[in-house]
Specification:
single chain; mainly alpha; rod-shaped
């Protein structure tokens, strides 16, 4: 299984770390490292962006639920 195929199975932290490493190697690595990083960067960036959007959506839903519960509690009081 290639690294590209493993990206969806990685944890959020692993994706962020791998993205940071790929970005660093794309700038400072040797030719082989730059080529490997260039291959991985788009997929890693897409995955990191998607996961961030999901986290933000979950947080937004949680805040809305908390706000709704607080408003119910205030109305009942």
């Amino acid at each position: 299984m290639s690294l590209l195929e493993r990206i969806p199975t990685l944890s959020d932290e692993e994706v962020v770390n791998l993205l940071a490493n790929a970005q660093r190697l794309a700038e400072t690595g040797d030719d082989k490292q730059k080529a490997a990083a260039a291959e991985l960067l788009p997929a890693l960036q897409d995955e990191a962006d998607a996961r961030k959007a999901e986290r933000l959506d979950r947080a937004k839903e949680k805040r809305a639920a908390t706000r709704k519960a607080s408003m119910k509690a205030q109305a009942a009081a």
